[in-house]
């Protein structure tokens, strides 16, 4: 039996694929390569180039590969851009999830790990985010992820008394960084680590957006979690579902403490050996002082833990980016 990874040619998906293979759970990838890279898919892993909006392709991938479960990472992940492209965001993230659920039901596949997002919380007014915090997404992206969770929940309820009940969990996480494989790196044009790496490689000075926040060093504080830890949590969630073990409806994969942007910049300078003073730009509207999640539930059930220091996060990400040339 195998596990289908939607978006498995992307930065996070490619790490999940490798973690599945290492755990003896045969991965299969479906990805339309709109932001992923076929070179990120390991040799020997079945690869279907198709959109999750393509019902025939999705159902075919499930049936043809004897799939027992799905790890659903495919989607449009740019929160800021989603404000300008709401219809595209909803098509990819909401309709894509609906098509996937429909395909799973038709193929008799009953296990699903959903890659959700901390964006479902919006801008919390508490310093530490727990799973039961009210959901107030502040972008079409966050809204689409929350609707995805609702779709999955409702399908679980609808199938609960059938011969093929949907078993599922959603993993909500924040800023994913680093690399667990020198051939895979973050290629997003919007994430902090690749933005800093590209600036340093181009001889430009990285930027900080605001240094007057109500935090110890004046820069905002966020969760930064290593991609290998994220991948490991997805695999354990898949194993628990396959083994019939109980899972929560959702887990935060949070750091508990967070890191400031200045701490990230200091680590960038230390690890790369490039001495720089970040350029300070005005705050971006709506950026809160601090958003950090607890990972207590995930630690209890998914062996979630922060296994990398900030320097190791930077070091692994920098090495993978430089390896790409």
UniProtKB/TrEMBL annotation:
The protein's required cofactors: NAD(+)
Keyword list, A-Z: Carbohydrate metabolism, Isomerase, NAD
EC number(s) recorded for this UniProt protein: 5.1.3.2
Domain named NAD-dependent epimerase/dehydratase: residues: 3-254
Pathway(s) this gene product operates in, as recorded in its UniProt entry: Carbohydrate metabolism; galactose metabolism
InterPro entries cross-referenced by the UniProt entry: Epimerase_deHydtase, NAD(P)-bd_dom_sf, UDP_G4E
Catalytic activity field: UDP-alpha-D-glucose = UDP-alpha-D-galactose
A GO BP annotation: galactose catabolic process via UDP-galactose, Leloir pathway
GO MF, one annotated term: UDP-glucose 4-epimerase activity
NCBIfam families hit by this protein: galE (TIGR01179)
UniProt family annotation: Belongs to the NAD(P)-dependent epimerase/dehydratase family.
Protein name: UDP-glucose 4-epimerase
Source organism of this protein record: Microbacterium terrae
Top-level taxonomy: Bacteria, Bacillati, Actinomycetota, Actinomycetes, Micrococcales
Originating gene: galE_2
